Amino acid sequence: MKVLTVRLEDIRDKNAEITAELPGALFPVLSEMIHSGEVIVTSPVRVEITAAHEFDHVRVSGRVEADIRLTCSRCCAEYDDKLGSTFELFYTKAQGPAPVLDEEIELSETDLVSVSYKGDEINLIPEVDEQIVMELPLRPLCSGDCRGLCTACGGDLNVAECGCHREVSSLSFGALKNLKINQ
Ligand SMILES: [Zn+2]
Ligand SMILES: [Zn+2]
Question: Structural domain of residue 158, as residue ranges?
Fold first, then answer.
């Protein structure tokens, strides 16, 4: 049985409910990010979905959640976080040979995404994958007021103030200063 696939014949007269706990590696883009070390997924990816046939489209409402571990972009420490996204997808049957462009409308609470499908089943993996990846921060921060690393000695300023002079906060200046002292 295929995971996260809605068969149109199953939702002809009733809604389909799908609840699944899946490995992060099942989602292509997320899997790439796991391989490149951008994120560690520390739990199964939990997906809850309701698919309903309405008029000329299939509405898929759902939620995806996972526990993740990220590396802070300021202090380089790993920290644990949770991600969760509630979404609503509208699948419309592709018409004719011309490709139907996906449209995306951002709303405050839920993302409304319109996708085209072909054939008699809908594979939800690509869109759920996108929902997860969109939730990942571009510049992860362990906390909003993370002080980062000292540009002179590399010490973690969240742990202790090292006492370095950092008026000119550039690594090359720090290195030059140390060089002069050592001579
Ligand atoms: Zn940090
Ligand atoms: Zn320092």
Answer: 147-183
Q: Give 150 Cα–ligand 2 centroid separation in angstroms.
A: 5
- Note the pTM of the prediction, 2 decimals: 0.77
**pLDDT tens digits, 100-131:** 555 555 554 556 678 888 889 999 999 999 99
| Cα gap 169→70, rounded to integer Å | 26
CA of 149 to the centre of ligand 1 (A): 8
- The neighbour count for residue 131, using CB atoms within 10 Å, is 24
Nearest in space to 21 (alpha carbons), one of 35, 51, 41: 41
**Relative to the alpha carbon of 73, which ligand is closest?**
1
Looking at the fold, whether 47 and 93 belong to one and the same domain comes out as: yes
- How far, in Å, is the centroid of ligand 1 from the Cα of 35? 22
